[in-house]
Write a structure and sequence with these properties.
Layout lengths: L1 E2 L2 E6 L9 H8 L11 E2 L7 H8 L5 E3 L5 H10 L6 E3 L3 H5 L8 H11 L8 E6 L2 E6 L2 H10 L4 E6 L15 E12 L2 E11 L17 E5 L1 E4 L16 E3 L5 H11 L4 E6 L2 E3 L7 E2 L2 E2 L3 H5 L5 E4 L2 E4 L9 H5 L5 E3 L4 H17 L6 E5 L3 H12 L7 E5 L8 H9 L4 E6 L8 H16 L7 E5 L3 H8 L18 H14 L7 E3 L7 E5 L8 H5 L5 E4 L4 E4 L9 H5 L5 E8 L8 E5 L2 E2 L19
Parallel strand pairs: 2-3, 2-4, 4-5, 7-8, 7-12, 8-9, 12-13, 21-22, 21-23, 23-24
Antiparallel strand pairs: 1-2, 6-14, 9-10, 10-11, 15-20, 16-17, 18-19, 25-29, 26-29, 27-28, 28-30, 30-31
Helix pairs in contact: 1-5, 5-10, 11-14, 12-15
Amino acid sequence: MEVNGKRLLVCDCNGTMPLDGRALAAACAGGQVPHGGLEVHTFLCRTQLAKFEAALRQERPVIVACTQEAPLFTEARAEAGLDTDIRFVNIREHAGWSDEAMRAAPKMAALLAEAALDAPAIPMVTVKSAGVTLIYGCDVTAIEAARQIADRLDCTVLLSSPGDIVPPSLADVPIFKGTLVSAKGHMGAFDVVVDDYAPVIPSSRDVLRFEPPRHGAVSSCDLILDISGGPPLFPAHERRDGYLRADPRDPAAVQRALFELVEMVGEFEKPVYIAYDGPLCVHGRAGRRGCTACLDACPTEAITSAGDHVDIDEFICAGCGGCASVCPTGAAAYTVPARETLLERLHTLLATYARAGGETPVLLVHDGTHGEELIATLARRGRGLPAHVIPFHVAAVPQLGLDFFSLALAYGASRLCLLIDPARDEETAGLSSQADLANRALAELGYGTTRVVLLTGTSPDGLDRVVRMVPPSPTRMAPFSPPKGKRRTAARALGHLHDTAPAPVDRVALPPGAPFGTIAIDSSCTLCLSCVTVCPTGALVGTPERSRLAIVAEACVQCGLCASVCPEHAITLQPGLDFAPENKAARVLVEGGAPCRRSGPGRDDRQSASDRGL
């Protein structure tokens, strides 16, 4: 059987999970059993391996519904001298090993359909390291560490406030004294500034002695091993490529760092995690500071202000995705995978599940390490995932935001459970704020307060309790495909959720900082239209010859530039979601020099946000 032009191979793993080939084929094909159906193998990775090899020879991509034996299948392909594309999808731990496995066919079909989608290439950047290494310590531990790897790397030792150290009998590594006062850069291009810098005196006899020190010495290196025992040199230091840190009192930790260090020589490919679209950025205009959401969210300080826009250092970026989560316009967009691919996967997954007869789907969003391990433990030692709980893998959970949450719910998900790796706790502030924003808006519409749930530090038992909570009733599945643009996605999905809400209201008030809303104008406005000049999204529309100022609320991101530039301080931000139809067009705020009440738009001012290209 083929799905999206790819040959599908399934196996019941030696009879350990129930698979109905006919039902699964019908679910994958939208109700009709394709000719020949779907063969269910029993021992594909061993006695039936020839069938796998035969599928490869058909020169079509192959999807194998097994991840555990991926290395074996990959090796078999190489031994057969073939280069057919293979993809692997986990239906065993995710669906088949469960006390509800007999009802899991819709979920299995959804997982298989998602795996069959075409995935575009991820943009990459090349990182080069020649192995020039700075080992920063305070005693003989740093010297011994450098001597261990001196035949593999070009090492220099910098000792901060060294005590009495016996001079080595062989000067096989350069030794200096100094304190690192600043460090910046990334693997292959670190720059450091050293105070109290001094080279060792070669004639040191009983203890190491150093020449007169100087401040502000500058140097560069490819790699840094920090065993000084002091504070880390970088924020989120464990995610700074090329910077390793170990406790000098822990010999095992130092040795692990050395093993890692010697492998960091050569050229490496690193994903470009964030695509930045400058024209969409609302960081500033005309020298005025506007949105700083991405700068506030970035734990590695890879994002810096550059006047009206920001700079994102792709070499420092560690891929947490926090900036993409909080960016109000989509100017910072995650690329692993691209947003369009992520939303296509979401739509395919939930649409296939619904067509196959699945009900009340709960989306369990997780990463590929912590999340997979918890799910596997639950499947092997517990009851497994319920049939309605569908795992959804992403590279980094903190990349997600209101647009994704609202679209998932609009596509019929009854709840989203976001499984957070405890190692990523410091990266989740933006994600948490976006989840709170979604829950607040949904609660105002009558959906309750637990549609988006963050799970941090979860044990298998804790995960089991959460996923077995009775799911709330989902909304009717939205009939549209994923819209283009982050704000359009959020607006379209939230509009659907409003239209199908248990208790719809025309306006939902949101907390300060929320990226939706309008503005209020008081009587001091002189219609100078400075606010129109700096508005980065075109939400404000001014017609001086008619003494009129209007706003397209759908385009307002609450960046505050209009308020900051207003010479009369006449503008107040009013964050919120406006669902009334007239708010999709320009609404007059001031006319003839007098502020208007929340009246409908004038005939000449009607212009939708989509018409304005927002």
